[in-house]
TrEMBL record:
Family to which this protein belongs: Belongs to the universal ribosomal protein uS7 family.
Keywords attached to this entry: Ribonucleoprotein, Ribosomal protein
GO CC annotation: ribonucleoprotein complex; ribosome
Organism: Mycena rosella
Lineage, top ranks: Eukaryota, Fungi, Dikarya, Basidiomycota, Agaricomycotina
Protein name: Ribosomal protein S7 domain-containing protein
Domain Small ribosomal subunit protein uS7 positions: 83-195
InterPro entries documented for this protein: Ribosomal_uS7, Ribosomal_uS7_dom, Ribosomal_uS7_dom_sf, Ribosomal_uS7m_fungi
One Pfam family named in its UniProt record: Ribosomal_S7
GO terms of biological process kind: translation
Length: 243
């Protein structure tokens, strides 16, 4: 049985015409010109590939966590500052993040207006000075309440510091939250700098954010006898349990 097929004239013309080259002379000249603009040395395609390195062979670095940690292959900067993002999240109400971002931006502007200095380092210092190191939890032991101090993680410390700064700013007189928050941050940094070196009876009595932090630390020191200590862990380290 014979098979019949039909081929158009255009298809025959394409079959009969010579094949075109993949890259024309003009494209090759453009590529050579582009490679030459990168440098007068040899082409990057002529150099041998670098030897492959196993990412698991990186030396471990010291850490407080269990198990070894390895250095990252590349340090990718975050899209925005993590502290400003955290502050924005704590200022946000009813999902209005754009409004909270404007408050943070105006706070930085007010800090610069009050100090004529870069605002971000001052904001970082204020949050660091306002952040507590411990918290105290109440437990029932028999028929009495026992207060036990616990160490805070870095994120918990930052959370308490920002929360106290916002509460102290709300207690200030003023129309705009950004201005009140900026004044509280500048006040925290200035009062801490002025109180350095003063101890005993000469130590000032702080109010606001620093007063809340001093109150929490004093209460934790009074109840330091209730700190839980693991005897097995005390032989190998500090032995203080944290949450």
């Amino acid at each position: 049985m014979a098979l019949r097929c039909s081929i158009g004239r255009s298809s025959l013309a394409r079959l009969g015409s010579p094949l075109r080259s993949i890259g024309s002379l003009s494209d090759q000249a453009t590529a050579q010109q582009a490679f030459g603009a990168l440098g007068a040395g040899p082409s990057v395609f002529d150099a041998p590939p670098p030897p492959e390195k196993d990412f698991m062979d990186l030396p471990p670095i010291g850490t407080y966590r269990r198990g070894p940690r390895y250095e990252p292959l590349i340090n990718v900067p975050p899209p925005e500052d993590p502290l400003l993002y955290f502050l924005t999240s704590m200022l946000m109400r009813h999902g209005e993040r754009a409004k909270a971002r404007r408050i943070v931006s105006k706070t930085l502007l007010y800090i610069f207006t009050f100090t004529r200095s870069p605002p971000l380092p001052i904001l970082r210092e204020a949050v660091l000075l306002a952040s507590p190191a411990v918290r105290t939890s109440s437990f029932t032991h028999g028929a009495k309440q026992v207060q036990i101090p616990f160490a805070l993680t870095e994120k918990q410390r930052t959370h308490y510091g920002i929360e106290w700064l916002i509460k102290a700013a709300n207690a200030r007189t003023g129309q705009r939250l950004a201005e009140r928050l900026a004044r509280e941050m500048v006040d925290v940094v200035q009062r801490t700098a002025a109180a350095r070196g003063l101890q005993g009876a000469n130590a000032p009595k702080f109010t606001g954010t620093l007063g809340k932090k001093a109150e929490v630390h004093t209460f934790a020191m009074v109840n330091r006898g209730g700190v839980r200590i693991d005897p097995a862990a005390a032989r190998g380290g500090d032995g203080i349990t944290t949450t």
